[in-house]
Amino acid sequence: KQWYQRRVAITAGGRCAGIDPQDILKEREYRISQRMALRLKELETYDDVENDNLKLRANIEAKAIRLIEFQKKVRKEVLSCMQRDTTLETAFNSKLYKRAKKQSLREARVTEKLEKQQKLEQERKKKQRHQEFLNAVLQHVKEFRDHHRQTQHKTLKIAKAVRIYHENAEREEKKERERIEKERLKRLMSEDEEGYRKLIDEKKDKRLLQLLAQTDEFIKDMTNMVRKHQEDLRDARMKKKEKSTDCDSALIPLL
């Protein structure tokens, strides 16, 4: 009896209130909307980012979030239309239950003829497009060859002009060198040293300038050697003369 009373006391209490599914759905929708709002604020900070790819992805995601309500509305309208079309109300629309009209032999032949004409027309258009493509390719090949032929002709013409220019320049330079060489030899034969040096300076021939410098140095050395030799001879003569004078002065008392 005590056990029965205890059991009755335990089970006599009120029942616990269950979880309302509508409240759960509302809470879920609220949390999703809050997360979407936070995500939109986060995506708005990507406007100052320099990376164009990241900015584009952020813009696409933001537009997708803003279109969620519109998608829900469209989905709801589609579902309502499907529910309306699948209910028994469609039974009152007699047109939905009419049998398709049976085609006669004549109509079937006309239809077959039209289909055959359409097929032929499609084949003709296909061949025509293929022919136009081939013509375009051939025209492109012709233009490509003409362009490269003209480019090659221009290149050869320019190369010929450059070659002729350099040949003429080389010929003129050779003539100028021969003229200067003749003038230099002429000045050299006429012993015009100043004119000869002037020509060499104008020509800026390093080899000849070096030879002239070596020649001048050699002549200077020879001049110094000749001068020294002359001075030595003069000194020797003076010493010999003095010696002979001393001998004569020594012989005079003996006489």
Please give the oligomerization state of what you see.
Answer: single chain
Main sheet overview? none
Care to count the β-strands?
A: 0
Principal-axes geometry comes out as elongated
Structural class, please?
Answer: mainly alpha
The run of helices and strands is HHHHHHH
The value of Rg in angstroms is: 61 Å
User: Low-confidence parts lasting 5 or more residues at pLDDT below 50?
Assistant: none
Helix content: over 70%
User: How far is the first residue's CA from the last residue's CA?
Assistant: 199 Å
Number of helices: 7
Note the beta-strand portion.
under 5%
Overall pLDDT metric? 77
Describe the structure.
This protein has 255 residues and is mostly helical. The protein is 82% helix and 0% strand. The chain is elongated and about 180 Å long. 1% of the residues are buried. The mean pLDDT is 77.
In short:
82% of the residues lie in helices and 0% in strands. The chain is an all-alpha fold and 255 residues long.
Features:
255 residues; mainly alpha; 7 helices
Q: What's the topology here?
A:
Blueprint: H1 2-11, H2 21-44, H3 52-66, H4 68-85, H5 105-189, H6 193-203, H7 206-251
Helix pairs in contact: 2-3, 5-6
